[in-house]
Amino acid sequence: MAKNTQGPMNKQGRWAYTWHMVKANKGCYIMLIPFMIFFITFTVVPVIMSLPMGFTNFNMIQMPKWVGLSNFYTLFVNDDVFLIAIRNTLIFAIFTGPFSYVLSFLIAWLINEMNPFLKTFFTFVFYAPSMTTSVYVTWQLILSGDSYGYLNAVLMDLGILKSPAQWITDTKYILTVVIIVQLWMSMGAGFLAIRAGFQNIDKSMYEAGAIEGIKNRWQELFKITIPSMGPQLLFAAVMQISTSFTVGMVGQNLVGLPSTDYAAHTIMNHATDYGWVRYEMGYSSAICFVLFAAMLLANKGVNWILGKYID
């Protein structure tokens, strides 16, 4: 009987504590209101609308026509390009997800060992590519398919190539090139979160670890550093999953939409093609819903793996 009473009391206590903290930090919540209005209007509402819209035939001119599971059936059974997009997205997710996540952690770890000036400098160097879209112009100049392209010019001068390679139009190179550029631009918010996590670790924990028998930096990393950065690591992982599954902008700006023989065509590119080019919003919504479900499953997996470090 006491157990049944204790549960509601705990729940009431949590709500009372939450409301107390809201009132104590009301200034912060007031400042969040403008962002939340735009976030709900342009993110939450479209995501909620995409599910029922995925069961319709909607071209933005006529009223939506209910077609049931027809869009999803066509997507997985009759749409060969979507199967190519799934393969490319998984390749992108593998290379620009876990690999980029580990790379962000290692670079942030190395930067954390530098003096304050170098910390600031190298943090900016690695973060800057994720802030600008003009980077595509630079890469198009480097990868230009004529002898004036920087990469072709260097390789031809070294005798490695006899004629210019078509880096952004030849299907042999397109996917690899887009992955490299995506990795170069992947040091975004997740990288900054990991950097902040390193700086927030209490230095006295390392002294206590040395007293307890920790002998080298690798033991410090796995016994002190990583367990102390649980929230930052989880945030970076979620951001990296979102980036790797929704990759498409890099390929679209670098190799075009669609790319040659759909060599760099991802699920996001497929949704963009049907939504913004063909205006088949029902079919595009079905694609987006499949992508959302895949990202949700991946986030659940990451929460399960890193959840033990949150506390």
UniProtKB/TrEMBL annotation:
What is the protein's major site of localization?
A: membrane
The transmembrane segments are 29-49, 90-112, 124-142, 173-194, 233-251, 281-298
Q: Which GO terms describe its cellular component?
A: plasma membrane
Q: Which InterPro entries match?
A: ABC_transporter_permease, MetI-like, MetI-like_sf
Keywords on this record? Cell membrane, Membrane, Transmembrane, Transmembrane helix, Transport
* Keyword Transport found: yes
Q: Where is the ABC transmembrane type-1 domain?
A: 86-302
Question: According to its record, how does it sit in the membrane?
Answer: Multi-pass membrane protein
**GO BP term (any one):** transmembrane transport
Where is the protein situated, by its record's location annotation?
Answer: Cell membrane
Q: Which Gene3D superfamilies match?
A: MetI-like
- What PANTHER family does the record tag this protein with? ABC TRANSPORTER PERMEASE PROTEIN, INNER MEMBRANE ABC TRANSPORTER PERMEASE PROTEIN YCJO
What is the protein name given in its UniProt record?
A: Carbohydrate ABC transporter membrane protein 1, CUT1 family
From which source organism is this entry? Answer: Ruminococcus albus
